[in-house]
Amino acid sequence: MTFYEEVLDKMAALLTAAFGLVAALAWNGAIQQLFKQVFGTADSLAAQLSYAIIVTVIAVLVTILIARAAAKAKAVKKE
Predict the structure, then answer these.
(1) How far apart are CA 25 and CA 31, in angstroms?
(2) In whole angstroms, what is the distance from residue 42 CA to residue 32 CA?
(3) N or C: where does the chain have the smaller number of CB atoms within 10 Å of the terminal CB?
């Protein structure tokens, strides 16, 4: 891989990560508003803990699903 190809590869990865961060922040705001409606305020400890736990569980489940899909795609590509 040439230096130019490496630079393009890293730039693509950085841009993808940046867009992922923007999307995560947008979802964060939306989910916080949802919790404000459900709990009445997002400032209470119970609301913040519930939010953190639920988001963590969702993140873990989605990460597992993505890893499984990537492994399956790699297996298909080898065949």
Answers:
(1) 10
(2) 7
(3) C
Residues with Cβ within 8 Å of residue 55, at least 6 apart in sequence: 31
The residue assigned the tokens 């298909």 is 76
> Computed over its alpha carbons, how large is the radius of gyration of the chain?
18
The one-digit pLDDT tens for each residue of the chain (79 residues) are 789 888 888 998 899 899 889 998 998 888 888 877 877 765 677 777 877 888 889 889 988 998 898 888 878 877 7
Number of domains in the chain: 1
d(CA 6, CA 4): 5
- The alpha carbon torsion through 48, 21, 26, 54 (nearest 10 deg) reads -30
